[in-house]
Amino acid sequence: MSLKGQAYIVGAYEHPTRHAIDKSLSQLHAEVALGALADAGLSIADVDGYFCAGDVAGWDAPGVGPTSVVEYLGLKLRHLDTTESWGSAYINHIEHAARAIAAGKCRVALITQAGRPRAEKMSPELEHRLQAQSAPESQFELPYGPIVTNMYGMCAMRHMYEHGTTSEQLAWIKVAASHHAQHNPNAVLQKVVTVEDVLSSPIVATPLHRLDCCVISDGGGAVVLAHPDVARSLKRPLVTPIGAGFSVKHLNGGYFDILASGGVQTGAEAFAQAEVQPADIQYASLYDSFTITVLIQLENLGFCPPGQGGRFVADGGLISGVGKLPFNTDGGGLCNSHPGNRGGMTKIIEAVRQLRNEAHPAVQVPSCGLALVHGTGGQLGARHGSATLILEREE
Amino acid sequence: MTNRIPTAPQPWPETEAFWNAANEHKLLLQRCPDTGKAFFYPRTYSPFTGASPCEWFQATGRGEIYSFSILPRAQPPYCIAYVTLEEGPRILTNIVTPDYESLKIGQPVQVIFVESTDGQNVPMFEPC
């Protein structure tokens, strides 16, 4: 069943905090929920469907995580979906919410995301190690010290080996993000950087530099989807998902290609469903845990042929108003925020801003009617959940 | 120079054969009973068809570097890598060498065994 017009994104809100020392995780979820509902012109009482992933308070306590948040918010639900695929989960939740609304399971769907790794001094490495204790692969991997940076370093190293990609080309991705972030007063990094700045930052894991990495920040965001009848009664632009894809990529018994993410499958599926081509996309929110993440996703989604990502991003290829494909105009995870080490929600929110003509004027894509959101949750060079979403503004 | 001491793995009963063999400096793999294809990591059921039992066999221990990344600021620095084994599967490991600068993708490597924090040996690789 086509997604188009089944449901509309009527509310979106990004939390302004980047260091939430004085706020609980539940409070952050509540603040983003209330922010997105206010943006839509709805209230808590209107919500009958709730979507959350593993970042909710109490998730680690036996069984009660999602229900605890439902209670904290005082939601009265008919539908709950806790699908977890780390940072890409929220992008996947948009499709789930649209289908749940189409199936009559709910009429107003709330999706929240929040995290405070900075306040908790929880590095992605430590988080990974804690979560991985009982995973079947852990005994064969943890002894070797896989931290996030060196796993992505291997992806970059292989891409350079196969395709001749250079550190300068990767650096252009950070440069583009920084050009956008200078207009975002909430961004963690607001200073415009040059290719030379990236290359002169210390190597964290060969061949990646410190500035090839995203920021670590607190915060979060929320999105509200509504049934067409509800959406038309609200005074917000009509943004609808028209294509979506989800897949899990893993190491397949030892036979894998670290340059082919789950995006190969999810991109093809989303584009076919939406009946549009990569060249039709006017704005893209692409997961940017590292510069290499963006490069591989661009190729996997079909924005350029395999191996051509380096050329695609060089010389400002991703800068709004300059390049072929404006990306992450809020500054992305590379400069703005990577709340809770999960970047999917902020990706959706900036795409909605673009489609509503509500992005910062300096980075707004003129007459933006078609946007793509893509996330890689987990680790690119190992196991991850990929989600692609194509959004359209309906006039 | 000092090498990084690997953290001890936490074996399950289904993987004890692998770790016992590692203590005898043997690298074991398993084969899918349906396809005959070698796979990694070890488990009770074939990741290709779900079949069992999956026979254990000793790998040659030879392979080549598929990709790697060095953490120059770790104390001590170390190199993580995927190595493609002669038998087919790729495995996550460390490359042990006094000369990280010389490492290259495609380089042939040979298994060695290194004691982890609790004495359990774990397979690593060195250039050959």
From TrEMBL, chain A:
The Thiolase C-terminal domain, residue ranges: 257-392
GO molecular function terms noted in the UniProt entry: acetyl-CoA C-acyltransferase activity
Top-level taxonomic group: Bacteria
UniProt cross-references to Gene3D superfamilies, sorted A to Z: 3.40.47.10
Name of the featured protein: Thiolase domain-containing protein
Species for this entry: Pseudomonas alkylphenolica
UniProtKB/TrEMBL annotation, chain B:
A Pfam family matched in the record: OB_ChsH2_C
Residues in ChsH2 C-terminal OB-fold domain copies: 56-113
Superkingdom of source: Bacteria
InterPro entries: ChsH2_C (IPR002878), ChsH2_Znr (IPR022002), NA-bd_OB-fold (IPR012340), Thioester_dehydratase-like (IPR052513)
Database matches in SUPFAM superfamilies: Nucleic acid-binding proteins
All residue ranges annotated as the ChsH2 rubredoxin-like zinc ribbon domain in the record: 19-44
Protein name stated in the entry: DNA-binding protein
